[in-house]
Automatic annotation (TrEMBL), chain A:
Pfam families in the record: E1_dh
Catalytic activity from the UniProt record: N(6)-[(R)-lipoyl]-L-lysyl-[protein] + pyruvate + H(+) = N(6)-[(R)-S(8)-acetyldihydrolipoyl]-L-lysyl-[protein] + CO2
Keywords of this entry: Oxidoreductase, Pyruvate, Thiamine pyrophosphate
Protein name, UniProt field: Pyruvate dehydrogenase E1 component subunit alpha
Gene from which this protein is expressed: pdhA
Protein's GO biological process: pyruvate decarboxylation to acetyl-CoA
Annotated ranges, domain Dehydrogenase E1 component: 24-321
Cofactors (names): thiamine diphosphate
InterPro entries hit by this protein: DH_E1 (IPR001017), PDH_E1_Alpha_Subunit (IPR050642), Pyrv_DH_E1_asu_subgrp-y (IPR017597), THDP-binding (IPR029061)
NCBIfam families: PDH_E1_alph_y
Keyword DNA repair on entry: no
Enzyme Commission designation: 1.2.4.1
Automatic annotation (TrEMBL), chain B:
Cofactors: (R)-lipoate; thiamine diphosphate
Classification of source organism: Bacteria, Pseudomonadati, Pseudomonadota, Alphaproteobacteria, Rhodospirillales
Biased composition (Pro residues): 96-112
Biased composition (Low complexity): 84-95
UniProt domain Lipoyl-binding: residue ranges: 2-78
Pfam families with a match to the protein in the record: Biotin_lipoyl, Transket_pyr, Transketolase_C
PROSITE patterns named in the record: BIOTINYL_LIPOYL, LIPOYL
EC number: 1.2.4.1
Descriptive protein name: Pyruvate dehydrogenase E1 component subunit beta
SUPFAM superfamilies associated with the record: Single hybrid motif, Thiamin diphosphate-binding fold (THDP-binding), TK C-terminal domain-like
Stated role: The pyruvate dehydrogenase complex catalyzes the overall conversion of pyruvate to acetyl-CoA and CO2.
Catalytic activity reported: N(6)-[(R)-lipoyl]-L-lysyl-[protein] + pyruvate + H(+) = N(6)-[(R)-S(8)-acetyldihydrolipoyl]-L-lysyl-[protein] + CO2
Principal EC category: oxidoreductase
Length: 332, 453
């Protein structure tokens, strides 16, 4: 059932779509670089998990999402929020803990939500988003709204028991969900070989009859094609689907990563030869979709957008003291 | 000697049952394992099997008899060579046999209460009140659904959801695998997107498997999302000790859940409490923990007929007014406090009994007002003493009514041990009317010399 890395040549989308994918990934990259800078300056605190290197995964998935779909992920969530259409200003202002952040400064990096964009967090407990996510799928089925829940989890989360409780119920009730395992090879600092029995995480649903595919998660076009297949399967009422996205984070697990568990050479190899953004840029120029000047213009625009977000996030006021007591319960 | 076939105890809490029908007639040959009769309890209908070969002699309790106490002889089984006793003896079994044990009735009738006289009421068990609350709210709001283990086809492990599958179908009455963490997380996710799940835990002991979702997913998300996402969900099921089911199935979670901001926690005692509080919980936009009690499920109370009868959270009820000492309790301990009040009355002490009903928010105002009258307070908590609800009440009373106190606030709690199985030890581990009465005497500086007993 579980396949090797999808060998099929992914469908090539039209030029405008290629450019959209490129802009989306680049926005995440530049946003995360800026977040890293602001962290270094002491403007962002606490836990901060950057998505640099993994941009192709959520970008390729979102490219195939329908408006009714919902999305939920773990704590490495900034990229997912941007890909779901949340405003970079509001996301950055939440990172700085300000009043204009998506959670009015009360959530932080790991806890942001947008009902408008059907983005349901941002969850700090590893694996908890998986049963919550099948609950979103349950609600799609209950209402018959045609939506599919996109449930992201890391290779570390696949060893949580509640993931299998969720696989079981999702398969039993044919819930419209796609489990996207972002396998960046390390559960925090523990390599897959040291924490996961068996070779392929995409096969972890086999006992429940859930089809799984292993995908090159560093190639946004492969991700996009796989997303189309998996989402169509779930949307048709056939039940859940597992996509194991082979990916890599170029930065540490969080901002305080000692980087002792993997070699500099390994990281350099991935950065230099498998960067999903470089790869798409090459495709764009090879196919003559855009020239150097055009690429520079895109870069300038996105840098400006991120700079504006950073400025906004620093200018936004601290939450008022009265905010301490609001939103605990629904005020009558 | 013929063998007496006795009314069996079919569950830990069964005290009596209904003999629905006989499957064998007098004179029938019986083999060991044959089904003799159908017994209905408040939880299930079960067959009574013979454990011996023989001939069914006299039937002592006819079909369709309600309220037959456990251990009542139902029929005589004749072994080989035995003949039936004379018919005259058995037509009226109460004259031929020792009188059947008295049904250990509903402890003692609720004492007169200070509650406002309700309008029209009907008699109902706590069990049926809970079911009606869910059914009425499900009719009212199509987004409400019930999910849990055995809530559908089995009709509820404790028969709370009896009949709901027939009315609402499997889309809204959802039998789950045994997977508390999974289905609780699922229900929280569904609630994020605006549905209104009722999660039934077969018992609250199993909610420990799911407590991460109750706290981290249900209770905190509204705050963490800056008010964008709420979690309109009800977690309900029997809490605390039932009867003789041992430590892992007998824990009181009152203080565990009441500790957490973002949750509301209620603990009904009467059927009216059960109905009014559960309906409020289902209509509430925030997560609500409803701590029921298995031993109360079969007890009958007056319940208002009004289909919109709800009990707002944070309102305690004075169930017995008194002027000498305040007894505070919730859930099953309300009855223990009322029984203690009866003991004290005989000694000239009038206890005011307060049914807390809601643990978070806590109606401290009603407690303070009572202490201003009685100057003494004793809390009765089934759970452990350390960091309990009673400890919180004592702290708040000291903070808010210190000058009114004539004695230290006193706690009667469950013993600080895992609940034992043996009957003698189990009784010692839980608050009893006599231990509550003793605590009340102590704060009244009265000493029981035994004369009152």
């Amino acid at each position: 059932m579980a396949a090797k890395i999808d060998p099929a040549t992914p469908a090539t989308p039209p030029p405008q779509e290629l450019l959209r994918l490129y802009r989306s990934m680049l926005l995440i990259r530049r946003f995360e670089e800026k977040a890293g800078q602001l962290y270094g300056m002491g403007l962002i605190n606490g836990f901060c998990h950057l998505y640099i290197g993994q941009e192709a995964v959520v970008t390729g998935m979102q490219a195939m999402a329908e408006p009714a779909d919902s999305c939920i992920t773990s704590y490495r969530d900034h990229g997912h929020m941007l890909a779901c259409g949340l405003d970079p200003k509001g996301v950055m202002a939440e990172l700085t803990g300000r009043a204009d952040g998506y959670s009015r400064g009360k959530g932080g990096s790991m806890h942001m939500f947008s009902r408008e964009h059907r983005f349901y967090g941002g969850h700090g407990i590893v694996g908890a988003q998986v049963p919550l996510g099948i609950g979103l799928g349950f609600a799609h089925q209950y209402r018959g709204d045609g939506g599919v829940a996109h449930i992201y989890l890391g290779d570390g989360a696949v060893n949580q028991g509640q993931v299998y409780e969720s696989f079981n119920m999702a398969a039993l009730w044919k819930l419209p969900v796609v489990f996207v395992i972002e396998n960046n090879l390390y559960a925090m600092g523990t390599a897959s070989a040291r924490h996961a029995a068996g070779d392929e995480l995409c096969a972890r649903g086999a006992a429940y009859g859930i089809p799984g595919e292993r995908i090159d998660g560093m190639n946004v076009l492969s991700v996009r094609s796989a997303a189309a297949r998996a989402l169509a399967y779930a949307r048709a009422g056939a039940g859940p689907f597992i996509l194991e996205m082979m990916t890599y984070r170029f930065r540490g697990h969080s901002m305080s990563d000692p980087a002792k568990y993997r070699s500099k050479e390994e990281v350099s190899e991935m950065r230099d030869h498998h960067d999903p953004i470089d790869r798409l840029r090459q495709t764009l120029t090879d196919r003559g979709v855009i020239d150097e000047a055009g690429l520079k213009e895109i870069d300038r625009t996105i840098k400006a957008c991120v700079a504006a977000a950073a400025e906004f996030a620093q200018a936004s006021p601290e939450p008022a003291a009265s905010e301490l007591w609001t939103d605990v319960l629904t005020e009558a | 000697m013929p063998i007496e076939i006795l009314m069996p105890a079919l569950s830990p809490t069964m005290r009596e049952g209904r003999l629905a029908r006989w499957l064998k007639a007098e004179g029938d040959a019986i083999k060991s394992g044959d089904a003799l009769a159908e017994i209905e309890t408040d939880k299930a209908t079960m067959e009574l099997e013979s454990v011996e070969d023989g001939i069914l002699g006299r039937i002592l309790v006819p079909a369709e008899t309600d309220g037959v106490p456990v251990n009542t002889p139902l029929a005589l089984l004749l072994l080989e060579g035995e003949s039936p006793p004379a018919a005259a003896q058995t037509q009226t079994p109460t004259t031929a046999n020792p009188p059947p044990p008295v049904i250990p009735t509903a402890p003692s009738p609720p004492a007169p209460t200070a509650r406002a006289a309700p309008t029209a009421t009907h008699r109902q068990t706590v069990r049926d009140a809970l079911r009606d609350a869910m059914a009425e709210e499900m009719r009212r709001d199509p987004d409400v659904f019930l999910i849990g283990e055995e809530v559908g086809q089995y009709q509820g492990a404790y028969k709370i959801s009896q009949g709901l599958l027939d009315e609402f179908g499997p889309k809204r009455i959802i039998d789950t695998p045994i997977t508390e963490m999974g289905f609780t997380g699922l229900a929280c996710g569904a609630a994020f997107s605006g549905l209104k799940p009722i999660v039934e835990f077969m018992t609250f002991n199993f909610s420990l498997q799911a407590i991460d979702h109750i706290l981290n997913s249900a209770a905190k998300t509204r705050y963490m999302s800056g008010g964008q996402l709420s979690c309109p969900i009800v977690f309900r099921g029997p809490n605390g000790a039932a009867a003789r089911v041992g430590a892992q199935h007998s824990q009181d979670f009152s203080s565990w859940y009441a500790h957490c901001p973002g949750l509301k926690v209620v603990a009904p005692w009467s059927a009216a409490d059960a109905k009014g509080l559960l309906k409020s919980a289902i209509r509430d936009p925030d997560p609500v923990v409803v701590l029921e009690n298995e031993l109360l499920y079969g007890q009958t109370f007056d319940v208002p007929d009004d289909p919109d009868f709800v009990i707002p959270f944070g309102q305690a009820e004075i169930v017995r007014p008194g002027s000498h000492v305040t007894l505070v309790a919730w859930s099953r301990m309300v009855q223990v406090a009322l029984d203690a009040a009866q003991i004290l009355k005989a000694e000239g002490i009038e206890a005011e009994v307060i049914n807390l009903r809601s643990l978070r928010p806590l109606d401290i105002g009603t407690l303070v007002a009572s202490v201003q009258k009685t100057n003494r307070i004793v809390t009765v908590e089934e759970g452990w003493p350390v960091a309990g609800i009673a400890a919180e009440i004592a702290a708040q009373i000291v903070e808010q009514a210190f000058d009114w106190l004539d004695a230290p606030p006193t706690r009667v709690c469950g013993a600080d041990v895992p609940l034992p199985y043996a009957a003698t030890l189990e009784r010692l581990a839980l608050p009893q009317p006599d231990t509550v009465a003793a605590a009340a005497r102590a704060v009244c500086y009265r000493h029981n010399d035994g004369g009152a007993a």
